[in-house]
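User: I'm writing a tutorial on reading structure tokens. Could you give me a worked example: one chain, its sequence, then its tokens, then a sentence or two explaining what the tokens reveal?
Assistant: Sure. Here is the example chain.
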Amino acid sequence: MRAIDSTQIKVWDPFVRLFHWILLGAFCTAYFSEGEVFEGLRERLPGELLQGMHVWAGYAVAGLVLFRLWWGFIGPRHARFSDFVYRPGATLAYLKRVLTLTAPRHLGHNPAGGAMIVVLLLSLTATIVTGLMLYGADKGLGPLAGLLAETGSATIDGIAEAHEMATNATLLLVGAHLLGVVWESVLHRENLVRAMITGRKRA
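And here are its predicted structure tokens:
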């Protein structure tokens, strides 16, 4: 059995890491099964299959977000909101230091990363809620079907537009998150993607 590098310490617990990667897979599945990427396959695959993929991936995202909110209060130190949610002033000050390449290294999430997590959770929540509303209003299915069964076409169109806007906003935030990960990895000379796989970072 290979000895563990004494310069590495455990930061991310298994649940945080599983949440991160499963959420990525579920969001991508939901996005691409409904988007134009599979447009050429719609003539070959049953529409119910792609719709089912989209719906169940959406439910998976909803469950993961609920789990992360719960784990943010009872999980280990670096998983808790209290460890990485900072005041807006502190977050802005950190971002300024990032731009001048003087930002200090944080073992857990830095202030900018913590803010991104909060904004992403809010954006995902908006995507989930509008998706459930659309599913109930347009298809008459899902937990909100009873409340939205009599919804008119104009309202359904509005809900669909809101769902699309929330989804695209989430996608933009994911892109910004990836840029931040690359920037911080270069700035502090450590592979943050690998850290989210192994759970370990430089002490």
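What the tokens reveal: The domain at 8-202 is CATH 1.20.950.20 (Fumarate Reductase Cytochrome B subunit). The chain has one domain: 8-202.
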